[in-house]
Every structure is written in structure tokens, then in C-alpha cells.
Amino acid sequence: xxxxxxxxxxxxxxxxxxxxxxxxxxxxxxxxxxxxxxxxxxxxxxxxxxxxxxxxxxxxxxxxxxxxxxxxxxxxxxxxxxxxxxxxxxxxxxxxxxxxxxxxxxxxxxxxxxxxxxxxxxxxxxxxxxxxxxxxxxxxxxxxxxxxxxxxxxxxxxxxxxxxxxxxxxxxxxxxxxxxxxxx
Length: 184
Known about the structure:
Blueprint: E1 5-9, H1 18-29, E2 36-40, E3 59-63, E4 77-81, H2 90-97, E5 102-105, E6 120-122, H3 128-144, H4 147-165, H5 167-183
Parallel strand pairs: 1-2, 1-4, 2-3, 4-5, 5-6
Helix pairs in contact: 1-3, 4-5
């Protein structure tokens, strides 16, 4: 079986916290079972030097990406999400659709879908050192989960997502709204 990996895919801008990603990678790198972290993305709003990760032996910068469908996930991977603030991130929805385990900070609308039972949820804090340790704790939980536990967690999340956000449900709700206006 292939080793477990983390996939981080986002804009390499301050809002998405590549600085926290680097600190997480450095914290994990001292462990003999440190997961590899594949980083996909490019800078949009800020300038970013990919040499920023040079001191992180467990980080591989993979370049830009065009949605999660362009990333070759394995059944051993988890999607790692770091962000200072957000609504309901589209990238989280894409990861759910791909049925990938998710490790994410609880910011903005993330908790609408991600819970302790469906993902590896990192409690938000303003203390960056504590935030890094919380990420490491959740990453270690992911690393220790059996394949069956991961599958169950992902299925619970996908079920919750399907009930709340699937396109057919959205289309039905929009149709119901428009039908009210057309009855008059």
C-alpha cells in the first residue's frame, strides 16, 4: 500500500496561509512517519517564491492546477485546507465530490458541512503556534485512521453534502422559487 500523503491546493496568497502550511510541514518533518505534502497552486493576489518551502523536506511543490480534477489523488491522500477566512470554499466542495478525506480549519462556512464525524476539523485560534499544533493533531488522527474508518468518514460527509448541496437539490429549490412567481 502507498504511504499516506497530504494534498494542499489553493492560491499561494496570504489569505490561504501558506505560512501556516510551511510551519505544519516543519513540525511534521521531525517525525519518522511524516507524510509527504504535495502543494499545488500559484499566486494571484500576492507574490510568492516557491523557495519558501525549501527547508521542508516533506513538501513537494507541484505547480499550478486547474481544479481538483487535475490532481491525481490516491486512496491514501487527504486534502489539507488552510485559510485565514472564507465562506464555503469551492475547493472543499470539490474535495467532497471526489470523496477525499479533508483536514481543514473551521473558518467561515466550513462547519456547514465539516464536523468531527465527517472530517478532521481544526478549531480556529488566533495563536498561530497553537493553530499549527491543532493541525498536526488532526493530521496524526488522519494518519492513524484505518482505511475503513476513513471510508466511513468520507461517506458520512458525502451523504451530508448530497443532502445539502447537490446540484439537483439546488435546481429543485430554484424551480420552486420561480414557480411561485409564474403562478401569479
